Amino acid sequence: MSTFSQKVVWITGASSGIGEAFALELASHGAKLVLSARRAEELTRVANLTKLPASDVLVLPLDMTDIDSLPGHVKTVQQRFGRIDYVFQNAGISQRSDVADTNFEVYRRIMEVNFFGVIALTKAVLPLMLAQGSGHFIVTSSVAGKLGTKQRSGYCASKHALHGFFDSLRAETYDKGIRVTIVCPGYIRTPLSFSALNSEGKLHGRMDDNIDKGMLPNVFAQKLRQAVESEREEVYIGGTETYGIYLKRFLPGLISRIVRNRKPE
Ligand code: NDP
């Protein structure tokens, strides 16, 4: 029997890309799903693709930046399924702009979605998990959560911040049955670059080459499922770009040179 059989898994950013692929992967392993993001019609499309019976999937549209609404959404999930076993904190937006040009509001927006929304949802779910004596947060960081690159200053900062927060949470709650898996994807073929913000907060609106050549989301989702099953604390999934994380740790001068000599995309 699968680890995820009959487990309640709440996925944010479930309307496309990695979140969608993870929803399909876990549906095929017997999970009950809560699908969240802003676009209700896309969530319904994903719910239909899972082929789960209506009783096993809840479409729950939400905006991660509407922090006050999050405790109410937790209640909705609790009322529907009685418990929450996994929360995949995956919703996020990226950036394409140099520090010198970027409006301050762009930084705020990225932090609201990628960091403050994630903290708020975690704090809203945590009391229930503590009462259950079990629960598992899966968090989508990035290779950019381990090293800084050009034109991603706010994005890198938001993803680095997740590591600090969730490492602390893991230490505080491990003995209470709470687990944390942080995943750092490399390039994964999703529409992420379309919704990336430029210096003025407008949408980048196109597919980047590296992402276009990246790992397929369904392959990523399989590897992530295995990592979560093994209760890995931190996992890097992607192509050779993930080696950058090891270079940062063991040869920081080298990765610094590589990054500064690369043209931004
Ligand atoms: P997508 O653009 O396909 O997915 C992003 C998801 O986040 C969408 O479902 C989007 O749904 C949701 N989202 C964005 N803003 C909000 C918001 N304010 N409230 C609720 N949901 C929101 O890209 P990916 O699947 O690639 O991205 C998923 C995660 O993976 C992100 O955290 C990203 O940073 C990370 N990542 C991706 C990499 C890649 O190469 N693809 C590499 C490293 C990390 P909606 O618009 O319906 O709200």
Quick gist of this model?
The protein has 265 residues and is of the alpha/beta class. The protein contains nine helices and seven strands, in the order E-H-E-H-E-H-E-H-E-H-E-H-H-E-H-H.
CATH class categorisation: Alpha Beta
The number of helical runs is 9
* Average pLDDT taken over every residue: 98
Question: Mind describing the biggest β-sheet?
Answer: 7 strands, parallel
How many E-type strands? Answer: 7
CATH homologous superfamily title:
NAD(P)-binding Rossmann-like Domain
What class would the helix/strand composition place it in?
alpha/beta
CATH architecture classification name: 3-Layer(aba) Sandwich
- Provide the list of bound ligands, each named once: NADPH dihydro-nicotinamide-adenine-dinucleotide phosphate
CATH topology: Rossmann fold
Report helical residue fraction: 40-55%
Number of domains: 1
Distance between the amino and carboxyl termini: 44 Å
- Low-confidence segments, given as residue ranges, are none
InterPro entries: KR_dom (IPR057326), NAD(P)-bd_dom_sf (IPR036291), Sc_DH/Rdtase_CS (IPR020904), SDR_fam (IPR002347)
Protein name: Short-chain dehydrogenase/reductase SDR
Family: Belongs to the short-chain dehydrogenases/reductases (SDR) family.
Keywords: Oxidoreductase
